[in-house]
Design goal:
The complex is a heterotetramer. Chain A has a domain at 277-493. Helices cover 78% and strands 2% of the residues of chain A. Chain A contains 21 helices and two strands. In chain A, helix 9 packs antiparallel against helix 10 (242-267) and helix 12 packs parallel to helix 18. The longest helix of chain A is centred in the C-terminal third of the chain and has 32 residues, at 328-359. The radius of gyration of chain A is 21 Å and the shape is globular. By secondary structure, chain C is mainly alpha-helical. Chain C has helices at residues 2-23, 40-63, and one strand spanning 64-65. Classes of the chains: A mainly alpha, B mainly alpha, C mainly alpha, D mainly alpha. At the C-D interface, helix 1, helix 2 and strand 1 of C face helix 11, helix 17, helix 20 and strand 3 of D.
């Protein structure tokens, strides 16, 4: 009974959790509800993955309505992958959040903070599982609106401006997306992705479709911080409350990338005229710009959270590059990097959250020698940093390796060299952190700090450990990513 | 011309809305532009759903030809989303006004710390760089 | 000092000459012909070491700088 | 049989121990620091020779542990270096150095036993990180950074080469190849960079002397020799290696002869000796490869010993410059004997391990009828006695004392040096031991009268030149310019000169000059500002970019 309703349970758990948390008006109760709801979500996500692996695509009709009128949730190898990622991060973030929320959010707002967290998770999962283009928009807005609120809850007044900017930009992005969907609806008469694909095949003129693709790609591009549409991201991540930054950095952009991949390959990939023309070269160019320019911007940042945010923009460049390569290895690399980057950036932002909790600052020059007093936290940050560089033995190496292979397979040897070369820039910004954190004499902030509490260390080290573990035992995520890539390219039915 | 009237109106609204968002520094005006922009989407969906000679989509055995109901439903959702966005945006503007004392974006960006710090840093760096080479 | 050096040098040369004589009573397993001739190692060693000193001295005149490197 | 040990490899033991070390304190830490290398060395010998374990990783056949004879020779050499190095450095107070030294040694073992290119690359990078941290732990960040950058470059070259090799259907297996494609050239240059090959050899003498008294011992043993092993595995018989190796040998000789700092001299000497090995790899016959491996083993033994002696002197006097030392034989007799034995082994005095391996290399050259290289290397060999067997001991150990000895070497340091002396003299007197390791050299005449006489004549002839050319060989304070001048000094020189030229230009064309320099600095500040403020765009600008990109997108698609 439950097994058949898994896809909708995935959304309902955090959604109902959000309502309960809002009603509870009590910080501790809200946290407990959040923890239970996200744990339930993660369990459902794994169950879904397991079922997809065993039985293939799962189709679920909301309320029993047929796809033409009703909404279909459709889970295949691609979304199952994303859903599991969001599930893992959601639970760990919830565990992590309690202490940092106590320190950063005024007590009256704690319950609403968890409500927003759960809403955001529900929205992201909804985008991932839905098979309906308009429904995806609704979930996109649910997650976005809760994200704006989460960011605005940050202590710094700049958080307000960051939230406002993200609100404007995010709404433009979502509106672009919905325009694109509207155009598709005009030419196909349906919003169900599966039916769109079927009807596109017999479509005569592709002009409307090209414009639709442009709107959708740019709209989602704004959401996933595709260079140069990334400018909202650094401030948003830097000034958001620590636990919100963890959730956003690990999942929000990743789910948007999923949506982009879904449209590029599943929807437009099916139509000959649109399939590969426009996005390939442009996306490669933008990805390279992100890899080099955004990473270079990361090098000169003084606020480590901003540094990590710029690094995120750069790393997203690797992911989109993998998608732009449009061959199985490249897409596997891109999706794998999506997965790995989410985990290591989550670890990095958790470490920063712990450091901010203990020292009250995220400024690089004030954190000299913090490794001496918070060795575990600093070690997790370092591991995440090594992952960002792509040092062998970390998961970042595996995904970059796939990307390089994908580039070579596509016959772009120069791209492979550029991928390696851009890792140098990561060496520079990670090197700066490592040097200051470990090798400088402790500054005032470090002298007064102490190691982070265990409940923060555990999720942080969970993610850092996974970065190492998947660097060595890469088969599981690589297998998932590879299956997802095959599904996207329709190599499997 | 008349045939494409609806499309032209949609595009005009869209461009006007976007222009306001891009060109105006006042945060409330930006939100107004954003609403305009979103409104164009409502038109984009609803106008093609109108069937010439059709009635409103009310189930009635007497009426065979009626407008496509689906876009109406969709746009109802979109309008709700738009209102929520506008409300949240305006709330943020109120808070920003409290925190900064202005709602002009360029003034706010000018008030933010990093710019000043950065100028000092650049100056210091170029100074020390020159000093180093001279020595 | 110079006198001591001269004495040492003479002693070394004498030792070398003695060993060259000994060398001529030994069966050689030459690989290239000339390296099997008695005393080859002596004059080749003298030449090789002298060449090393001369080249190093010349290179040092050209490339040796006083003081420490700026960025050491 | 290999399966008995499961995933256990010398590399894993050392790296795990290195990672655990910071968690331990006091005696426990020292115990692990010493026990791990011993266990790793024991495992090198316990592993039965065979094809090793193959595992399927992401569709590639990886062989992380492939114990063959070559791996055993190098594993032994690295193992001995790690054991003696740990014993020597046990009184080092820096925990970071101890931990990273173990990781560094583990990475070297990993390279020795790597059976495929991916494993090789992974350990290659760990090696680079470990060695950088060993240098860093002594506090010289700039030199560490230069070292790191050079090795990152080497790693990238290797990675690019390996990727090309895998993509080009070459597979991940390690097999002998020629540098016949761009990918393989990249791979070769990456390896050669680590071997300290000319012209990128300056990093050796730049970085190693910046390590602590004990860190330099580890550094002298692993990186370059691991690169030699990889050359043996991948590029045996590559003709380019002949002249590259000879250039290294000559470079090492000349720069060592000119050097004043003991540890720098030893570093240059590393390059020179590795040159011998590289030439042998270039010859590529089984005998030559075995000779190269044995020479690496012998070199690790005597260079560790020499570095230990230098480290003892540094620790005792705070000084390593020959011009500021002298007469140490009386105050540090044990160190003096160690330094003499190490030096004489480098100079291939009969009854030392160095004699055996160098004889094998020359025999391999003779067998291959590589006339030019035989004579050239023989001459270099005679020359190297000048600096290691004569100049170094003479100015450091004899003559008038110029530095006060504050501290005798600790017992553990003496024990390590003594152990190495035994390990050098033992195989030197009984070359049969080495022949068991590498049966290929069984036919080489080593302890025959004519051969011994040949070598002694050479050494005495070199001594004659040393005494004769005494005034030319006086150690002088200073440094010798090297290729690294290009990146260390040139920018410093060019910028002021460029500026002064700009000033001259300004005099004549003041307006233009002013504009140029202001334009440049404005550009620089603007770039920096943009990068730093990259996140602080006004909202309108982002929206504008989105719209512009949309237009570009539609345009491209419509065309």
């Amino acid at each position: 009974m439950i097994a058949t309703h898994l896809p909708v349970l995935l959304i309902l758990a955090p959604l109902l959790g959000a309502i309960l948390a809002a009603l509870s008006r009590n910080g501790v109760a809200a946290w407990l509800i959040g923890l239970v709801a996200s744990a339930l979500t993660a369990a459902v996500a794994f169950a879904l993955l397991w079922r997809v692996q065993a039985e293939g695509v799962i189709s679920y009709r909301i309320g029993g309505w047929a796809p033409e009128l009703g909404i279909e949730y459709r889970v295949d190898a691609v979304n199952a992958f994303i859903v599991v990622l969001v599930g893992i991060v959601a639970v760990l973030t919830m565990i992590f959040a309690r202490r940092s929320v106590l320190a950063e959010i005024i007590p009256e707002r704690v319950a609403s903070f968890y409500t927003m967290m759960l809403l955001c998770i529900a929205g992201l999962l909804g985008i991932a599982v839905t098979g309906d283009a308009f429904n995806a928009f609704v979930f996109l807005e649910i997650s976005s609106l809760s994200t704006y609120t989460l960011i605005a809850l940050g202590r710094d007044r700049r958080a307000l401006v960051a939230a406002y900017q993200y609100l404007i930009v995010g709404t433009i992005g979502a509106t672009f997306y919905v325009i694109g969907v509207g155009l598709i609806y005009l030419v196909t008469g349906t919003l169900n992705l599966g039916l769109i694909v079927e009807r596109l095949a017999s479509l005569q003129s592709s002009r409307g479709l090209i414009v639709a693709e442009a709107f959708i790609v740019i709209g989602i591009g704004l959401k996933l911080a595709l260079f140069p549409l990334h400018a909202w991201l650094p401030n948003a991540y830097a000034y958001a409350p620590s636990s919100a930054a963890v959730l956003l950095a690990s999942t929000a952009t990743k789910v948007a990338i999923y949506l982009l991949a879904r449209f590029l390959f599943t929807v437009f990939g099916g139509h000959i005229d649109v399939g590969s023309i426009a996005f390939g070269s442009l996306l490669i160019g933008l990805s390279l710009a992100a890899m080099f320019l955004a990473s270079a911007a990361a090098v000169v940042q003084n606020d480590i959270k901003r540094l990590l945010a710029f690094s995120s923009v750069g790393q997203i460049g690797y992911i989109t590059l993998g998608l732009a390569l449009a061959n199985p290895t490249g897409i596997t690399g891109g999706l794998l990097h999506l997965f790995n980057h989410a985990l290591m950036k989550g670890a990095a932002f958790m470490a920063m959250g712990a450091i901010v909790l203990r020292t009250g600052t995220a400024k690089l020059d004030e954190l000299a020698g913090i490794g001496r007093v918070m060795p575990w936290t600093a070690a997790a940050l370092t591991i995440a940093g090594l992952g960002l560089i792509g040092v062998p033995g970390t998961s970042g190496f595996v995904s970059k390796y796939y990307l390089i292979l994908g580039a070579l397979e596509a016959g772009h040897g120069w791209l492979a060299i550029l991928i390696v070369a851009s890792s140098f820039i990561a060496v520079l910004y990670v090197g700066r952190i490592v040097e200051v954190v470990w090798f400088r004499e402790p500054a005032a902030a470090a002298r007064e700090a102490s190691e982070a509490p265990l409940e923060m260390l555990l999720p942080m080290w969970g993610l850092a450990g996974v970065t190492i573990w998947f660097g060595v035992h890469a088969e599981w995520p690589a297998g998932l990513a590879s299956a997802a890539a095959d599904t996207l390219l329709r190599m499997v039915p | 011309m008349i045939v494409h009237f609806s499309q032209i109106a949609t595009i005009l609204l869209m461009v006007a809305g976007l222009y306001v968002v891009i060109a105006r520094g006042n945060m409330v005006k930006k939100l107004i532009g954003l609403s305009l922009f979103q409104t164009s989407v409502y038109l984009l969906y609803i106008l093609p759903g109108k069937v010439l000679g059709g009635t409103p989509p009310i189930l009635d055995p007497a009426r065979a030809v009626y407008a496509n109901p689906l876009p109406h439903v969709l746009i109802l959702t979109a309008i709700v989303v738009g209102i929520a966005t506008l409300a949240l945006g305006l709330t943020l503007v109120v808070r920003i006004k409290e925190a900064y004392g202005t709602i002009e974006e360029d003034e706010i960006l000018a008030k933010e710390g990093p710019k000043e710090n950065l100028k000092d840093r650049v100056r210091n760096r170029s100074k020390s760089g020159r000093g180093g080479t001279a020595a | 000092m110079t006198a001591t050096r001269l004495k040492i040098l003479l002693a070394l040369v004498a030792l070398l000459a003695l060993l060259v004589v000994a060398d001529s009573f030994v069966t050689h397993h030459a690989s290239f012909g000339i390296d099997g001739t008695p005393g080859f190692a002596a004059w080749f060693g003298l030449l090789g070491a002298a060449a090393a000193v001369v080249i190093a001295y010349g290179w040092g005149r050209l490339m040796r700088r006083p003081g420490e490197r700026v960025d050491d | 049989m290999t399966e008995t040990f499961g995933p256990l490899s010398p590399a894993v033991i050392l790296i795990v121990a290195g990672l655990l070390l910071p968690l331990l304190k006091g005696g426990l830490r020292n115990g692990l620091f010493l026990a791990a290398p011993v266990a790793a060395l024991a495992l090198v010998w316990a592993l039965p020779l065979g094809p090793g374990i193959a595992i399927d990783w992401l569709g590639m056949q990886l062989v992380p542990l492939a114990p063959d004879r070559m791996a055993r020779i190098f594993g032994t050499a690295f193992g001995i270096a790690a054991v003696t190095g740990a014993l020597y450095g046990i009184s080092q107070s820096s925990g970071l150095e101890k931990a990273t030294a173990l990781i560094y040694a583990g990475a070297a073992q990993g390279i020795a036993f790597a059976g495929d290119l991916v494993t090789l690359f992974v350990f290659w990078e760990i090696l680079a990180i470990g060695s950088t941290l060993v240098i860093w732990s002594n506090g010289n960040a700039r030199a560490g950074l230069r070292y790191a950058l050079i090795h990152v470059l080497g790693g990238v070259l290797l990675l690019a080469g390996i990727s090309a090799e895998i993509a080009g259907a070459g597979g991940v297996a390690m097999h002998p190849m020629r540098a016949d494609s761009i990918g393989r050239w990249l791979m070769l240059s990456g390896i050669l960079l680590n071997a300290g090959a000319f012209p990128l050899s300056a990093w050796v003498a730049d970085a190693y002397p910046k390590a602590s008294w004990s860190g330099a011992v580890f550094l002298s043993a692993f990186t370059t020799k691991a690169a030699v092993l990889v050359l043996i595995r991948l590029f045996p018989g590559e003709p380019a290696l002949l002249w590259i190796g000879l250039a290294m040998a000559v470079y090492g000789l000349i720069y060592a002869l000119l050097e004043n700092d003991i540890r720098k001299l030893l570093s240059y000497s590393i390059v020179g000796q590795v040159g011998f090995m590289v030439v042998a790899v270039g010859v590529g016959t089984p005998l030559a490869l075995a000779a190269a491996a044995l020479h690496a083993l012998a070199h690790i033994l005597y260079k560790s010993l020499l570095m230990m002696a230098a480290g003892s002197i540094l620790r005792a006097t705070g000084e390593t410059r020959l011009s500021a030392l002298g007469g140490l034989a009386r105050s540090m007799p044990f160190t003096a004997v160690a330094m003499l034995i190490g030096g004489l082994s480098l100079a291939a005095l009969p009854l030392t391990a160095g004699f055996v391996s160098k004889s094998a290399i020359l025999a391999a050259l003779a067998e291959d009828q590589a006339r030019f290289y035989w004579f050239a290397l023989s001459a270099v060999s005679a020359g190297s006695f000048l600096y290691i067997g004569l100049k170094l001991p003479w100015f450091a150990l004899f003559g008038a004392p110029r530095a006060t000895v504050a501290l005798e070497p600790a017992t553990s340091m003496k024990a390590a040096m003594g152990l190495l002396c035994v390990l050098i003299l033992g195989p030197g007197c009984f070359p049969g031991w080495l022949m068991e390791l590498a049966p290929e050299i069984a036919g080489v005449p080593i302890l025959t009268i004519d051969h011994i006489l040949f070598q002694i004549l050479m050494l005495i002839a070199a001594s004659c030149i040393f005494v004769g050319a005494w005034p030319l060989l006086q150690p002088k304070a200073g440094f010798t310019l090297d290729v690294d001048w290009l990146w260390r000094e040139l920018p410093r020189l060019v910028v002021p000169r460029w500026r002064s030229n700009l000033d001259k230009l300004r005099l004549s064309l003041s307006a233009v000059g002013e504009g140029l320099s202001q334009g440049w600095s404005a550009f620089r500040e603007e770039t920096l500002r943009r990068l730093t403020l990259a996140g602080n765009w006004p909202t309108g600008q982002i929206a504008f970019w989105a719209t512009a990109l949309l237009a570009i997108y539609v345009l491209i698609a419509a065309l």
